[in-house]
Design brief:
565 residues; alpha/beta; Rossmann fold; 12 helices; elongated; GTP-bd
Length: 565
């Protein structure tokens, strides 16, 4: 059974109230369903189911009833953060005014998230501002979705849990201030164990009073003056600044397209600008709606809850009528079964088939809803990534502008310092110039005196130099003459040696010619002697043979040979 209004339930002294908070999709409704055993609706579409605060009773023991409060997240897809804050603030303030204080709060966070993204950080900051430091000891920080992790990913889950506990911007500050950390494993036992820890803290330390309750009830602050209200205003201001920057950029791009005669793109930019201007208007309205007192909020939300109660009663009436019609149908079916058992069986079979078909359609719808949810998650991640990039770009531009202004200030300061330094330098230089002028005048006088002395010395030196040069030239000429004489003697010696060598060669040639003539003469004499002997022999043979011709030949041969010798 769900109770939708703070007016619709009352507590006994032993009863406790526990709020369940966290981002959309962290498992708040499922957690409450596991604890209470009730069928708490779980959203599977793009629209978050928990549109308002709901209360679910759970009889923990005969003497104690636990009321679990299901709250919407600050990343709700259909409602602004202002609307969510107004709902939560109204509910918490009302139960506090009725002296119904919270035993504690369970804050759920998905362990499957790779990082604490923008919406998770926003929810966490809002949660911390709602609670206040003094209530951290009544908080259980619970990680969910452990049952969806694969065995190999358990170590990754451990690391993420340690990071959440150790870093101050996540759970670190709350953990050190008394908040407990627990794991919800997705089952009834671990969910009830977490509720049991809250009850133990409550039994020892009493009820928790949240900061938002103190501010709105005890201090009579308007919603925008509370810490949570200021946090929402900060988020709205940041969003407005970003929207204004986008409008400016779109206006400039639209003007550029108009100049380029690109009407189509200009119209698209105009449409986008109108959409963002509508978002800016909504942000202004949301910011203005935060300026609301508790009494005004009570009047506003009471009317809303009465309307919700009226719709719920109307829905219950329709369901009762449908139930009566169903009971009448069953009675008629039973009567028809008595009359015709076979027809009843056929109808029963058809009904079973229809049930199967309906179950199949429901399963298809669930798969489609899951697909849409994944697509929405992807779009949300893309949007958050765009938001992150735009935020980084904005910070980068702010940092560049800050650095530019700082550089400009430093430049101006340097210029002023440089001018002052130059002025002082000019004065110093002027003094130095005057001093140098005096020094130069004195040095000029000394220089002129030294110049006169130097000219005199120069004249003397020139004369001495000329004498030295003449003497040096005389020595050089004498050296050249000695060198020429040596060269001449050397040439004469070489000529004599050449003449002697030529004479020796001539003598050797004459000796060779004489030797050749002697050999020729010796050969000639030998031949002549041989001819004489041969002639005498021939003549002697002619005498012996009484051959006058042979004698004459031999005599002629000997005579010629003797003449040739």
């Amino acid at each position: 059974m769900e109770l939708t209004s703070p007016e619709s339930f009352s507590l006994s002294p032993n009863d406790v109230v526990i709020a369940v908070m966290g981002v959309t999709g962290a498992g708040k409704s499922t957690f409450i369903g596991k604890v209470t055993g009730q069928d708490v609706k779980v959203g599977h579409s793009l629209i978050s189911h928990t549109a308002a605060v709901g209360v679910f009773p759970y009889q923990q023991s005969p003497n104690r009833c636990v009321y679990l409060v299901d709250t919407p997240g600050f990343d709700d897809t259909t409602r602004t953060d202002t609307e969510v804050l107004k709902d939560v603030a109204f509910f918490l303030s009302q139960i506090y005014r009725k002296d119904v204080k919270l035993a504690g709060i369970v804050y759920l966070h998905r362990i499957t998230d790779n990082r604490v993204r923008g919406s998770s950080m926003k929810n966490l900051k809002m949660f911390q501002q709602l609670c206040g430091d003094e209530a951290f000891g009544h908080v259980i920080l619970a990680t969910s979705m452990w049952d969806t992790l694969e065995e190999a990913s358990k170590d990754v889950g451990d690391q993420r849990e340690q990071e959440l506990m150790s870093r101050a911007e996540f759970w670190g500050t709350m953990y050190k201030s008394g908040s407990q950390v627990a794991r919800w494993l997705g089952n009834e036992q671990s969910a009830q164990s977490i509720v049991g820890k809250i009850i133990e803290v409550h039994d020892k330390a009493g009820e928790a009073v949240l900061k938002i309750q103190q501010e709105m009830v005890n201090e009579d602050k308007d919603l925008d003056e509370t810490a949570a209200g200021r946090e929402v205003q900060r988020e709205i201001a940041a969003a407005k600044a970003q929207l204004q920057e986008e409008i400016k950029e779109l206006r400039e791009m639209q003007e550029d397209m108009i100049k380029q005669s690109n009407e189509k793109l200009a119209q698209e930019f105009a449409t986008q600008r109108q959409t963002i201007e509508k978002q800016l208007k909504d942000a202004n309205e949301a910011q203005a709606s935060l300026k609301i007192s508790l009494e005004t909020l009570l009047e506003e939300k009471t009317a809303e809850y009465e309307e919700m109660l009226k719709r719920a009663q109307e829905e219950q009436r329709r369901m009762a009528e449908a139930l009566k019609e169903k009971e009448a149908d069953i009675r008629r079916a039973q009567q028809e079964r008595v009359e015709d058992e076979m027809m009843f069986r056929e109808a029963q079979a058809q009904y079973a088939e229809e049930v199967k078909e309906l179950a199949r359609k429901i399963e298809q719808q669930q798969r489609e809803a899951e697909r849409q949810q994944r697509e929405a998650e992807r779009q949300r991640r893309e949007y958050e990534e765009r938001q992150r990039r735009m935020e980084e770009e904005r910070k980068r531009k702010e940092e560049e502008e800050r650095q530019r202004r700082q550089r400009e200030e430093e430049r101006k300061k340097k210029e002023a310092d440089e001018k002052e330094r130059q002025r002082a330098e000019e004065e110093r230089r002027t003094k130095e110039i005057e001093e140098k002028k005096r020094e130069i005048a004195e040095k000029q006088r000394i220089l002129e005196e030294k110049t006169r002395i130097l000219e005199e010395k120069k004249r003397v030196l020139e004369e001495q130099q000329k004498a030295k040069e003449a003497e040096e030239k005389q020595k050089q000429l004498e050296a050249k003459m000695r060198s020429l004489l040596k060269e001449q003697e050397e040439m004469k010696r070489q000529q004599r040696e050449e003449q002697e060598a030529t004479l020796r060669r001539q003598r050797m040639a004459e000796a060779q010619m004489e030797s050749q003539r002697a050999r020729k003469q010796s050969q000639k004499q030998a031949m002549g002697l041989f001819g004489v002997v041969a002639g005498v022999g021939t003549a002697a043979l002619g005498v012996l043979t009484v051959n006058p011709g042979l004698v004459s030949v031999g005599a002629a041969w000997a005579s010629n040979s003797a003449n040739n010798m």
